[in-house]
Amino acid sequence: GAGVSQTPSNKVTEKGKYVELRCDPISGHTALYWYRQSLGQGPEFLIYFQGTGAADDSGLPNDRFFAVRPEGSVSTLKIQRTERGDSAVYLCASSLNAMTSGSWSGELFFGEGSRLTVL
Amino acid sequence: AQSVTQLDSQVPVFEEAPVELRCNYSSSVSVYLFWYVQYPNQGLQLLLKYLSGSTLVKGINGFEAEFNKSQTSFHLRKPSVHISDTAEYFCAVSELWAGNNRKLIWGLGTSLAVNP
Which CATH architecture group holds A5-98? Predict the structure, then answer.
């Protein structure tokens, strides 16, 4: 695809429900990142994939959050038993090489985000 | 731990005026530095980056930034702004640690409002 695609663009759910957010990165990009952005804040790191594996999940706030990337391209962020504090814009980004790679270009390509509202 | 401080949360400016958006970071090791821009209802887009070499870096849309190691700053400047520059601007720092690991640490953002 031309850019990073995220669906849905908007999701409204009730407290306690389960949600899935999808990210389709730029074709050929091996690294994929999930961030969360609350109002008036900068992006907050959640998890980073290199290929199919989660290379760093230290930013996931608790065990209600989980992400997968089974075939090394599309990724899904899963949130169980949603809480009002989970309301935020969830951003996905990809890069050709990992930030840990000596050949990293220094640029992340972001999608437009998925706005999650938990009532 | 490294941190990024964007000193101004909001910067109002008139069209064609110069602007400077300030960014300071705390780190004792070598860093990569970035400015990203987020236009209304759009995703974050890289404006410019400093990885190495010349401390004055030029980006898209006429923006430039200067890396000042002694002052740990990476301020963003544009000599003449346009209405279309109205957006949220984020400074980010990537520090090399624990071997090859890197993470981006973000500032809180500066909202630039260009008025006619």
Answer: Sandwich (2.60)
Chain A interface test: which of B103, B105, B108 (most A C-beta within 10 Å) = B103
Q: With a cut of 70, say whether residue A111 has pLDDT above it.
A: yes
Domain ranges of chain A: 5-98
Amino acid identity, position A90: Y
Mean pLDDT of A10-26: 97
Alpha helical stretches, state H, B7-109: none
For chain B, give every domain's residue range. Answer: 3-115
For A29-71, write each residue's pLDDT tens digit. 989 999 999 988 889 999 999 889 888 898 999 999 999 999 9
Q: Would you call B100 an interface residue with chain A, using a CB distance cutoff of 8 Å?
A: yes
**Domain B3-115 CATH class label:** mainly beta
Chain B, nearest residue to A46 by Cα:
B103
Question: Do residues B112 and B22 touch, judged by C-beta distance below 8 A?
Answer: no
Residues contacting residue A92 through CB under 8 Å, at least 6 positions apart: A4, A6, A23, A25, A32, A33, A34, A35, A75, A77, A110, A111, A113
Q: Do A42 and B90 touch (CB under 8 A)?
A: yes
